[in-house]
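Our preliminary data section would be incomplete without showing what the modeling component actually yields. Below, a chain of 1023 amino acids is followed by its predicted structure, encoded as tokens that our downstream tools consume directly.
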Amino acid sequence: MNTGKGGCSGSSERRVVPAVNALVMAMRLAWVVGGMAWGAAAFAQSTTPTTDATTNASSKTQGKQDDGKASEKNAKQLQQVTVTGSNIRSVDVADAQPVITISRVDIERQGFATVGQLLQNVSSAATPDLSMSAPGDLGPNQGGQFINLRGLGAPRTLVLVDGQRIGAAHGGYTNVNVIPVSIIDHIDVLANGASAVYGSDAIAGVINIITRKDFNGVELNTYNGMYAPHGDGEQSQYDVTFGKSTDRWGVVFSASYQNQEPVWTSSRDFSSYPWTDRHPLYGRSYVGFQPIISNATFPDGSQHAVVLNQGGDPSNLNDYHRVVRQTYGPDGDVVSPGDYTYNRDSGHQYMLHTADLTKNLYLDTHYKVTDNITARFNAGYNLDNEKATAGTATLYSGMGGHDNFPSVLSADSYYNPYNQPGQTPQDVNFYRRIAGDTYNSYNKPKNTRYSAGLDGVFSLGEHTFNWDVNYYDSKITGVNTRTGYFNLPNAANALGPSFLGSDGAVHCGTPGNVIAGCVPLNPLGNITQSMLDYLMINSVERYGSEEKAASADFGGDLFSLPGGQFTFATGVQHRSVSGYDEPDAFAAAGNSTDGAVGPNHGGYSLNEAYAEFNAPFLKDLPGAKSLSLDAAIRYSDYNNFGSTTNASFKLTWQPFDDLLVRASYGTGFRAPTVNDLYQGLYNAGGFTDPCDAVFGPSTYGYSPVVAQRCQTGFGGVAGVPANFRQIDNTGQPVTQPETTGITESFNGGNPHLKPETSYNGQVGFVYSPSWLQGFNASVDYWRYNIRNLITGITNDQVLANCYQYGITSSCTQFQRQAGTGQIINLMNLETNAGWQKTSGYDFSFAYALPEYAIGRFKLGLTGTYVTSYNMLPTVGSAVVYGTGIASAQTAMSVWRLRGNFTVDWAWHDFGATWTMRYFSPLKAPCAFPPPDARTAFPCTLPNYYAPGQGTQPMTQIASVTFDDVQVYWKAPWKATISLGANNVFNRKGPYIYGGYAGSDTPYNYNASYDIGRYVYLRYQQKF
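Predicted structure:
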């Protein structure tokens, strides 16, 4: 990779200049070609009309269904088809990479109402980074669905609509649910790197949503479903689509409405208790709705936590009792909860699936200016209203983590039970959940997008050329309002000194110094509405992002080769990306329990130029029915980090009619997102100073190198004395590792980030035997290697990078205070660190049986087998081997095998589909490994050897298969009625105790597994 601007070398700057000039020349060329097209329109009248540029070729995994002897006229038409994974309008490159095509019929035959639900069941998709099962992940991405191909992370999967970027939030996540199902013609899933064709983010693959174009008539669709027998999660969807198409113009308009009701944790066995229904008393808390004093003083001077007796007087210390601990059985399970009775997962305190109300409008139109020039315009509008509930609001001392607002009940408070005759006054630390007040997040994102362009075709002699110019603008704006938080300055006033006035009311402050407007708080007694009104505060976050691009493309065929026409495509694009996130200013200042996160805003722009060619070398020869090579290169010049060039090569070889062999290799990259670069600062917690004489040596490997650098100084950081001690924010030597120093440390974005880089390869075959008509098979081996991962690291890793690994740039992320030597201003920003590698096989088998008297049958099997999934999180860490493991280290559940088997039957106007979705077994770290005696929680592989880590006790997790069924009837009045059930047998996936690592859910259940039987009715009416 060449680096340029943003503090990079002068030689790199010199390389950028000719590249920019090349971009300008290429752009001029594209516009000149466009002008030529207008002038050549009359000459081009005889050219065969082009097929729509976004029309998809036949399924890429199904092999070739013709005899390879299409007429020259048909060949010319086929050259105008753009396929996912290539910029060349030719079907010859369609088979070079494994692309799964989900047709509209496939969509209608499955019981999923949204694009996200549909794509999550593609076998190459992994556990989602963010899921609807994590309502605590509040913010701009709440309620969305994000596809994580290959387990490489949703930001590394590029989402397109008709070949153009849909636009991601400023954090790099693209919510696929903003595209309504009603407008989709088909979806292409390319699980292969494609940066040379599409640029940044296409590291893991590409999802290309192709919309309906030539549509005539009116279509109404309704979808209604719910979980049964649970009777929740109701989902209603209604859409209407109008279309009219002629030889000259076409228009498609669609409006849709979708309402998704929530599912509550209390309604499912695995989420109704902290450690599932099999251990209903385990994991509960003593902090419930009964008031707790955590520092009650006993006669011997010791302090313990006490809880108010039911019906007791909160001002009478005799009405409290010391917290009764749980009682455990021989197997380690709880047999008596004592005072640990609070179950946060009961009732309507947490949503298992969040609520969502979505409205969509979509318009697509095209008009033939001439027979060979077409003007196009489309626009989309999406409005979401999302609600998430994530627990009960809790009052407690120290809430908000702000030293200026300790939230302690003052010894001089009227409500302090120690402020009574005969008691020694003292401040009171307390805990108390507020019944009826929950943490709610109301997220309202709005997505608007439009694109406009011209495309055309013309001929020069026997050669056909195509061109297009396009512009698009995609914008996301939103407001996230959160409730359940406390105003810390008001809490300090309300918990401070108070007194009973002559008017019989309690007032904040002291006699003669009343705090106006303050309502005294009684955290141990009856909390009135007026107390809550003074204390509670909403937190309002505003965010947005915008992506704009102008592009010009030119391509066609240049000359003949033995295997056919040499075709090419070239183009240029200018794109700009910007975003902002404005947290609540009051909260950002540390005045709210919502936390202190600074605002961020910023953006970047880039110029790109690409070229691609396809060379069919051989055709109709012994051992070479066809042989072709496709090569692409893309140059990207960013105004922040510099430039990068990426290439890809795809080879297809058909030794005989029935067999196609394919291989590809490419490099890729992912540019830092706006959030990666400019995220606001927030508290990063504690750290262990490498030079601390007590805790430093063990934390940093007892390294003599570290000790030497501590004494002499290193990387511009001054040395410290041999017996140096780290002190905490009270000025005392730390008594444990990971303690906050004399100043806070901060996480945040890093404007000096470099892009992630990658390479990927694939080799496989497609077999369509002539001796078995209707059968197709494909097998592909794939491999990815990603470097310079953009990631967050720990404070200790920042210090280790400096002192232990000698990375001097890390030494600039903190200073030592003059005179004391204490670490100050530790800035733990996003960084490039580590690598990730994965490999495996994709396979697909399909068989359309001959038609029988009882109907037509089709069988289909698709799957992904992962052979390796390894990562190095950061410098100096051990390699993590994650294949077949559910692990917090990989933040993933990596199934070795995921597969879908489908049987489809059709007879006259009736049909049915049965689908089996398979997840292979997993291993997971034991929740309580030996010698822990809690045998109630399985640890079936106590001596498991983990590569690179040694013996690591694990437990075996079973496989699971979910079955879906649908039956339909095509009614004579142009209607189709479908009735179906997903997970028809109401299967539950396996539990993993201690948390389902990496599935972005707080429950012992994977977010990819079904949460019950879902029954639905779909009605479609055409006019």
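Confidence is low (pLDDT under 50) at residues 1-80. The radius of gyration is 32 Å. Preliminary results of this kind motivate Aim 1 of the renewal.
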